[in-house]
Write a structure and sequence with these properties.
By secondary structure, the chain is mainly beta. It is built from three helices and 20 strands. It has one domain. The chain is 7% helix and 58% strand. The strands form three sheets. Strands 1, 2, 3, 13, 14, 16, 17, 18, 19 and 20 form a ten-stranded antiparallel beta sheet that branches. Strands 4, 5, 6, 7, 8, 9, 10 and 11 form an eight-stranded antiparallel beta sheet that branches. The chain starts with 9 loop residues before the first strand and ends in a 6-residue tail after the last strand. The relative contact order is 0.20.
Length: 257
């Protein structure tokens, strides 16, 4: 029988720039573009894609994703995952100069216990995530994010308690046992744009296009996944897209015998 080998810290981070599937008017699968997965031992991973086109459905000028993980010093481990899409165009209706999903985590053994024998969480935030020059049908749409939601609620239990009053049917914030689904969106300014309905905090329904959910966070203990755009396309085109997604966690694992 093999003797158990203790791993001081198990790194985890990754992301991708764009993926999707279309089922109308033709069937077309978009493989995950600029996809990376950080090795469990840490280090660095990166991927880049230039001038991407998928029929008339979606295109971008460039996209890149990188992930890294290392010990900052004897006490602190840092992990980052960043995915960036530049020159995004979806069906000629939705465009953006730049969409960024950036998730970083810091595990400090001085705050959560001995790094060689503690499974408590690090602090995960999303500073740097943004929408730049996001437009619908040529109209500027300003999406303001509440980055303090993650920066001020350092653990899963903190986030769960913060969002408990906001959960319920028809709301974008919800709690499913040990999983929280929420959004970083603070506000969306549509200006004088017509034909667009705002649903809740972070969802827009666009006539003859579909719906977009912005800056969704799927959270579990010690893990956050940030999806900057989840697009459900309706008539005349049908499909599902994900734009700029990143995730991060990391913890000592397994504990020493």
């Amino acid at each position: 029988m093999l003797e158990a080998i203790h791993i001081p810290f198990r790194y985890h981070a990754g992301g991708h720039a764009l993926s999707g599937v279309f089922h109308r008017p033709i069937c077309h699968v978009i493989e995950a573009q600029a996809s990376v997965n950080l090795p469990s031992i840490g280090g660095f991973a990166q991927a880049r894609v230039e001038d991407f086109h998928a029929h008339h459905f979606v295109s971008f000028k460039s996209a890149h994703t990188h992930a890294s993980g290392s010990k900052q010093d004897d006490d602190i481990v840092t992990i980052n995952a960043t995915s960036v899409v530049e020159g995004l165009n979806i069906l000629g209706v939705v465009t953006a100069d730049r969409v960024v999903s950036r998730v970083t985590s810091e595990y400090d053994r001085r705050k959560v216990g001995n790094i060689n024998g503690n499974n408590k969480e690090g602090h995960i935030i999303a500073w740097g995530s943004e929408f730049h020059n996001f437009r619908i049908a040529g109209h500027l749409v300003t999406i303001k994010l509440r980055h303090n939601l993650l920066s001020e609620n350092k653990t899963f239990r903190d986030l769960q308690a913060k969002l408990e009053p906001e959960k319920g049917p028809g709301k974008e914030e919800d709690i499913y046992g040990e999983v929280v689904l929420c959004s970083l969106v603070q506000d969306i300014d549509l200006g004088d744009l017509q034909g667009v309905e705002r649903i809740g905090r972070n969802v827009l329904k666009i006539k003859h296009f579909g719906t977009i959910s912005f800056a969704e966070v799927l959270a579990t203990a010690g893990d956050r996944t940030l999806t900057m755009m989840r697009v459900h396309l309706g008539s005349p085109d049908g499909g599902l897209l994900v734009v700029a997604e990143s995730c991060s966690n990391g913890r000592p694992w397994p504990p020493p015998p």
